[in-house]
Amino acid sequence: MEPPLSQMSIREVQEALYKNPSSRMINACQNDPRQGVQRLAVKLVKDQEAQVLEQARIQQLLVEENKLWKQGFLLLAGVDEAGRGPLAGPVVAGACILPAKFNLPGLNDSKMLTESKREKLFTQIRSQAIDFAIGSAEPAEIDALNILQATKLAMKRAIEGCTVRPHYLLIDALNLPNVHLPQLPLVGGDRLSASIAAASILAKVTRDRLMVQLHTLYPEYGFSKNKGYGTSEHLQALKQFGPCPLHRRSFAPVIQRTSIG
User: By residue range, what is the domain housing residue 185?
Assistant: First the structure.
């Protein structure tokens, strides 16, 4: 049995409060004469309110999933890409099958997250997902097919890389006619679907890590910072050194600097 609140240190109150965050305990802390104890109660209430809001936000990201789960499609793969816009490097796609119950606070479109938050969620998604896979299309394939078709190819490879065959696909914006599975393209899907958001994080972190590795081969372009996007520094390096084997030679800024060279 715990001693009376008045006989407990602030540290002991904190441990007891987070162990048993009952309304009775919170009220007792709010009425305690010590400001430190009162602050603990205020913080806990704010944390609880934030948790309720976060749970509601996640539930909003599961609207499409819930519709499909109710129809009997139990294994839903979210599919998204990273790297359609850069001047260099592959386009990378992720496919991710989340369980009906998961714990991924902060899950969101990868573009809305900080790098540290993406990295944390990347690890959590991989540990909680029923299955996931990564697919990519290389710069030469992008040049041969065009970026849209190469993106679809990367997505197809990600889906085919899954060990568990999904029942249904939720895809960010695109339709994949060469993938013979029922599918729903959602414009802005990485902000509308938890499954697509998870796939976007897997694709983004995988590609960013790859570009950091490729920086060691071609450090003059600054790939570790710009990840292949056309920053002013990257464009200046292209003008000075010309394109390297990682550049997409069908992209206008690269073509311009190739013709100059």
Answer: 63-213
- What span, in angstroms and rounded, lies between the C-alpha atoms of 254 and 261? 10
> 3-state SS string over 9-35?
CHHHHHHHHHHCCCHHHHHHHHCCCCH
Residues 49 and 75 both lie in one domain = no
Asked if 52 and 118 sit in the same domain, the reply is no
Q: Can you give the CATH number for the domain in which 88 is found?
A: 3.30.420.10
- Statement to judge: residues 206 and 116 lie in one domain: yes
Could you give the C-alpha distances from 3 to 6, 14, 22, in angstroms and in order?
8, 14, 16
Same domain, 9 and 99: no
**Per-residue confidence of the chain (261 residues) as pLDDT tens digits?**
667 888 889 888 888 888 888 888 889 889 999 999 889 989 998 988 988 999 999 999 999 999 999 999 999 999 999 999 999 999 999 999 999 999 999 999 999 999 999 999 999 999 999 999 999 999 999 999 999 999 999 999 999 999 999 999 999 999 999 999 999 999 999 999 999 999 999 999 999 999 999 999 999 999 999 999 999 999 999 999 999 999 999 999 999 877 654
Place of tokens 């479109």: 109
Q: What is the domain count for the chain?
A: 3
| Tokens 């729903």 belong to residue | 184
- Region of residue 9 (phi > 0: left; psi between -120 and 50: alpha; otherwise: beta): beta
In residues, how long is the chain?
A: 261
